[in-house]
Amino acid sequence: MNGEFASEGDLIHLFTDEENPSNGVEAFGEEIPILSVRNTVLFPGVVIPITVGRQRSIRLVKKAQKGDKFIGVCAQIHSNQDDPSWEDVYQVGTLAKIIKMIVLPDGNTTIIIQGKKRFAIREQVTDDPYFIAKVDYLEENFPKNSKKDQSLGRVFEGGSRQNSSPESRNSKRGPSGSG
């Protein structure tokens, strides 16, 4: 089965928290480069492509690609701002790992990134040659196995059984559809 996908392009291995043993805050560092992005919000666990065109951003991505591949991603407050300052960037973002970098013929660079952990900017270190900030990583607080979650799970399970296609229900009965 692997052979049939190999000709379609490169496969990208994604890391889950269980596969990545060094997922503690100490593994990421408190001072990280910050990439400001327009009209996009990255969440932990999500994989997205980002086209990088600003010279400041291209320098940041190329340096990170040669290093540990971790960058901070923050959304811009006003997407029409071509040269954002610290005041134009939201102060909460997501640490991301660059999974793949592709340099396009027009000079733009596209990166595929995977969100890792949310952070809040504690201190703005510099904006030259690109944004660098000291950050505090934020803990995620998700309820674990509450009765409400279990009830919702049962509703979805029951709904998926009821909503199976007529073709799949008929195939269980045999070709005549008479069970």
Strand content: 25-35%
What is the topology, as strand order, of the major beta sheet? 1-3-4-5-6
Identify the overall geometry.
Answer: globular
Fraction of residues in helix: 25-40%
CATH domain topology of the largest domain: Archaeosine Trna-guanine Transglycosylase, Chain: A, domain 4
Give the class-level CATH name of the largest domain: Mainly Beta
Give the biggest sheet: 5 strands, mixed, barrel
* Helix/strand order, N-terminal first: HHEEHEEEEHH
Could you tell me how far the N terminus lies from the C terminus, measured between alpha carbons in angstroms?
Answer: 34 Å
Mean pLDDT: 80
Q: Which CATH architecture of the largest domain?
A: Roll
Our count of domains comes out at 2
Structural category is alpha+beta
Strand tally: 6
Summarize the helices and strands and which ones pair or pack:
Blueprint: H1 2-6, H2 25-28, E1 31-37, E2 47-52, H3 55-66, E3 70-75, E4 92-103, E5 109-126, E6 131-137, H4 147-162, H5 166-173
Parallel strand pairs: 1-3
Antiparallel strand pairs: 1-6, 2-5, 3-4, 4-5, 5-6
Detailed description of the structure:
The chain is of the alpha+beta class and 179 residues long. It folds into two domains: 2-137, LON domain-like (Archaeosine Trna-guanine Transglycosylase, Chain: A, domain 4); 142-179. It has five helices and six strands, in the order ααββαββββαα. The protein has helices at 2-6, 25-28, 55-66, 147-162, 166-173, and strands at 31-37, 47-52, 70-75, 92-103, 109-126, 131-137. The chain has a five-stranded mixed barrel. A hairpin with a 5-residue loop joins strand 4 and strand 5. The chain is globular and about 50 Å long. It starts with a helix and ends in a 6-residue tail after the last helix. The model is unreliable at 1-8 and 171-178 (pLDDT under 50).
